[in-house]
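Exercise 7.
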Amino acid sequence: MRKSLLIFIALITFSSFVFGQTFDNKSITQLTSLKKKAVSKQDYELAAKYKRAIELKKEISSAVKAENYQKAASLKKDLTALNGSAPMNTSKKSSSSKVTVGNESIFANTVYLHNNTTGENTKLEMQNAKFAIETFNAYWVAGSSSFWTVKGYYSLVQLTNKDDFTFIIKLSEGIDPASIVTMVKLSLLGKNELDRKQIDSKTIAAAYAGAQTSRNLSADMPISFKYLGDNIYEIVVNQMILPGEYAFKFGIKWYLFGTQDRISNNTEYPVTAANYDTKDFYHLPSDAPNISWLGIDCSLFLFRSNYNVGKEGQVKGILLDGFDYNRDKYMNHGKMESWFVKKHRMNYLPAFGYDITQKNLASKWIIPRDQDYQPLTKEQIEKHIKDYEINMEGIGIVLISEIIDRAKGKHHAYMVVFDFETREVLLMQKLVSKIATDRTPKDGNFAKDFLYITKVFVDRYYRPSM
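Solution. The predicted structure, written as C-alpha cells, is:
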C-alpha cells in the first residue's frame, strides 16, 4: 500500500511539473530528459511536443550561427506557440476555455466552428484541393502560375464581427497540430475566376529579358494552438482577420470559411476600424462600405445605325433581351465580384439598370447614320444619379451607356461610382470600346457590347490603379 501511494504521489508530482512547464525556457538536455520521462509514463502526446521543441531549438541555433536572424525569430515564435498547446491540468485559464462538446460527435482531423454562446459545433466546408498550372501568352510576354484550388468563389460558412466563435480541431493522440495544420488567405485569380486559389509560384518571361519566377505568393497566416483536453485544440489566429476567403489546410483537405467583416478570435489582436476615404475608390480597404453593382443603365442611351424611325420598338426589345442575356451569362455575380472586388464584398442588383432603362428609355433613341449627337456632360450624369429612386447604403457603381455607334464601330459609356447617402459622384470614367458586330443587332451582340466596355474599365483603369 505504501509503495502504491509513493508511486501515486510521484506521478502527481511529475504531472504537476511537466504540465506547468514551458518549452522555450529549457535547454535541449532538459527537454530530452523530460521527453524520456513522458515516454516512460506513456504520455506520447507530450513526448511529441518535447521532440518538436528539441528540433526547433536546434534549428534556431543553426539559424543564429548562419546569421539568419529573420528565420531564427520565426522559429522562436513557433517554439513559443508550443507553450499554448501544452496541456495545463491546473490552469484556471485552461478550464475556462475548455470547449464543451455535449453529446455531439467531434471527428478527428476535422476543423469545426465552435459557437461560444450556444455550444454548437459546425463542421467547416471541406474540399480536396487540386494542383493546377495556368499559362498565358500575350504579344512578347508569356508566363505561367501554379496554384492549389478549390471550387466556388466563396465559402458557405461566413462570419461577421458579431459572431462569438472558436476554431477547434481534434487530433489523434501524440500529434503536434503545428506540424500538420496551416492557414492561408485565398485569392480569386486566373482564367476561371469563380474558384478560390492559393498561388504557389508565378513565372513571367519577356523577349530579350529572360524569365523571372516568384514563389510562395500566398504566405501562411500566423496561428497557434491551445490544448483544451481530450485531444481537442483551439486554433488561434495571431492577427486580425480581414474580409475575404480562408482555408485551414490539413494535407490536401482544406477546411474553408469566409468573412465579410474584420474579425478576431484572439484578444491580443482586437478588431479595429479602418481609416479610408470613399473618394479614393481604387484603394478602399477591406472593410469599406459595401459596393453595389447596379448593372447597365441605358435610359440616356442612343443607337446609331441605318435603321429608320419605326424600328425603335424592335431594337428596344432586342436591347432589353440583351440585358437579361448579359446579366445571366456574361456578367454574373461571380464574374462581377472577381473583376471589381479583391478586397470587398459586392451586392449584385443588375435588375435596377434594367428597370430604369425600361422605364425611361426615350422613344426616339435611334438616330440615323449621318446624324451627330451631343455627348453626355458631367452635370447631366450627376443630376441623373441624384434622380435614382433607390435607398441603399455604401457605394454604388453603374455603367451608363451613352451610344453604341455601329456606323463607326464604337461603344461610348461611363463607369460611375457614387455615394448612396449623399449621391456624390466619386468617380466618372469615360470609356470607349469596339462593338461586338456591325450586323443586325441581336441580344447576344448587345450583351457582348456591354461586356467589352466593362472589361475596358476593369483592365485599363481599375486593376492597374489598385
